[in-house]
């Protein structure tokens, strides 16, 4: 079963970004981002779109609905 926060963490590691860098891009605190990666919080709709933009992946890939990273 797909777990969003695990996928998010893997994308960040694969991208070579820090939690601080992603948090700054999202305009949230680093602690708020850490909660997303820990599964203690769920992202807003706007944050999901921003995360897909940051990692240059489709929303479907980001949330585990597709194995295809590329955006159409």
Report on the architecture of this protein.
Helix content is 61%, strand content 0%. Helix 2 crosses helix 3. The longest helix is centred in the N-terminal third of the chain and has 12 residues, at 4-15. The mean pLDDT is 91. It has 5 helices and no strands. The protein has one domain: lambda repressor-like DNA-binding domains (434 Repressor (Amino-terminal Domain)). The termini are far apart. By secondary structure, the chain is mostly helical.
Short description:
This protein is an all-alpha fold and about 70 residues long.
* Computed structural class: mainly alpha
H and E order: HHHHH
Which percent bin holds the helix content? 55-70%
Mean pLDDT rating: 91
Beta-strand segment tally: 0
Oligomeric state of shown chains: single chain
Provide the low-confidence segments as ranges: none
Shape: globular
**What's the total helix number?**
5
- Within the CATH hierarchy, at the fold level, what is the topology? 434 Repressor (Amino-terminal Domain)
Count of distinct structural domains? 1
Report the β-strand fraction as a percent range.
Answer: under 5%
End-to-end CA span = 25 Å
At the fourth level of CATH, the homologous superfamily is lambda repressor-like DNA-binding domains
State the CATH architecture: Orthogonal Bundle
Sheet of most strands: none
**Would you state the CATH class?**
Mainly Alpha
């Amino acid at each position: 079963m797909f777990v969003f926060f695990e996928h998010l963490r893997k994308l960040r590691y694969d991208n070579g970004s820090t939690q601080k860098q992603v948090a700054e891009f999202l305009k949230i605190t680093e602690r708020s981002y850490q909660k997303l990666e820990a599964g203690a919080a769920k992202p807003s709709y706007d944050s999901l779109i921003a995360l897909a933009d940051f990692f240059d992946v489709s929303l479907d890939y980001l949330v585990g609905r597709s194995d295809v990273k590329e955006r159409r």
